[in-house]
Specification:
This protein is α/β, with parallel strands linked by helices. The protein contains twelve helices and 18 strands. Bound molecules: adenosine-5'-diphosphate and magnesium ion.
């Protein structure tokens, strides 16, 4: 039996037309001899009756303070509803199908409600049903704790369900269906000339996703990478080949761009009498103890620079001033990242990028680089222009 996991995101299952297309993809896979295991997200975005945010508002209207376990119990329903609707629609086409919750599908997680980690997947419930000729439709984004608590997996959770099932079931491939033709060189909403990539390595797409490309969740990629299960990103609504995510050698210097918005740069002065090392440790410890995640960290003799998400800025600065630190703030920043496994051994890439941005008058507030990524922090009003510029410069728009 050749298993294939097919995940359909909110963009695909939101409308009857989308669901119809999705079912077509499932039946095509079956006709090719695969046993499809379908993973679905909730139907639609905020405002739609069964969308995750709509469900959350249902209880937040009563009281904003909702227990995490209760919130999980509620939001998990969005995907469960979607799974039953899909299974019923497949059955209506004359094909046996069955809907399962994450727990029924054998997905066991820790008890970290709202952002649970998958601990183990028992493949037997799905393989048994698939062997009996059923198309199994699994509610994405969720699992169950050892003592039966329903958990959710956090942002991008259905992507994670799909690749984790792919690994556990030893699937031939995991297909992630969405509303674009594959992974593109840049977010098509910012640069319309964005090109579809035929192939991309796990590391590159993982990095692109961490740096803001929304097309797949980075955690899902990491899970697939452990067992080298190939992932294909495809469009529910078109017959394009899509993008294959797999192991491989770097094929180009720069693969793609990604960006993040609404960041605040914080600069902490280190001149309050203590040794600067003691200060540095204290700053990082304070932020970590309060669960504030920071990025783009630079430690310099005169101070520490880092970025936080806009919504965390007030909490972060409150903590710092309470501890007696002076700080400066640069609000409304965006981060542009250039990703490519081929950059490693090519000299001059940084100079080239910097030069291009400088000549166009883009103000660079901070930079960072790792093996396959170079990032620039820029004022948000210059972000889209900077993304456009680098995309043109590196001819990413020409296939
Ligand atoms: P789904 O509901 O199917 O999970 P998402 O909205 O999570 O869909 O992800 C798909 C969207 O990701 C696309 O519509 C696209 O605008 C956006 N996106 C951002 N960066 C990229 C990129 N580099 N390649 C493809 N899509 C991207
Ligand atoms: Mg998504």
């Amino acid at each position: 039996m050749k298993l294939i996991v097919q995940k359909f995101g909110g963009t695909s299952v939101a409308t009857p037309e989308g669901r119809e297309k999705a079912i077509q993809r499932v039946l095509e896979a079956k006709a090719k001899g695969f046993a499809p295991v379908v993973v679905v997200s909730a139907m639609g975005r905020n405002g739609a009756p069964y969308a995750t945010d709509t469900l959350i508002n249902l209880v937040r209207e009563i009281d904003r303070d909702v227990q995490a376990r209760e919130l999980d119990l509620l939001t998990a329903c969005g995907e469960i509803i979607s799974s039953v609707v899909m299974a019923q629609s497949i059955k209506a086409k004359g094909c046996p199908a069955i809907a399962l919750t994450g727990g029924q599908a054998g997905i066991r997680t820790d008890a970290n409600f709202g952002n649970a980690q998958i601990l183990e997947i028992n493949p037997n419930p799905i393989t048994r049903l698939a062997k009996a000729g059923q198309i199994v439709v699994v509610a994405g984004f969720q699992g169950v704790t050892e003592d039966g608590g329903i958990t959710t997996l956090g942002r991008g959770g259905s992507d994670t369900t799909a690749t984790a099932l792919g690994v556990a079931l030893k699937a031939e491939e995991v297909e992630i269906y969405t509303d674009v033709d594959g992974v593109m060189t840049v977010d098509p909403r910012v640069v319309p000339e964005a090109q579809i990539l035929d192939r991309i390595t796990y590391r590159e797409i993982c990095e692109m996703a961490y740096q803001g490309a929304k097309v797949i969740h980075p955690r899902a990629v990491e899970i697939a990478m452990t067992e080298q299960v190939p992932i294909r990103i495809k469009n529910t609504f078109s017959d394009a080949e899509g993008t294959l995510i797999a192991q491989g050698a770097a094929e180009r210097v720069i693969t793609g761009l990604a960006h993040l918005t609404n960041l605040v740069q914080v600069g902490v002065a280190l001149n309050n009498g203590k040794s600067s090392q003691a200060n540095e440790v204290e700053v990082f410890k304070l932020l970590a103890d309060n669960g504030i995640s920071i990025d783009l960290i630079s430690v310099l003799p005169k101070g520490i620079y880092f970025t936080v998400k806009e919504e965390a800025a007030e909490k972060a600065t409150g903590i710092l001033s309470e501890a007696g630190f002076e700080y400066t703030l640069q609000k409304d920043c965006g981060k542009l990242s250039v990703i490519g496994a081929g950059m490693t051994n090519v000299p001059g890439v940084m100079a080239n990028l910097m030069g291009t941005l400088h000549r166009a008058g883009v103000e660079i507030l901070q930079t960072s680089d790792s093996e396959i990524t170079i990032s620039f922090l820029v004022p948000m009003e210059q972000l889209n222009k900077a993304v456009q510029l680098l995309h043109n410069k590196f001819a990413l728009g020409q296939s």
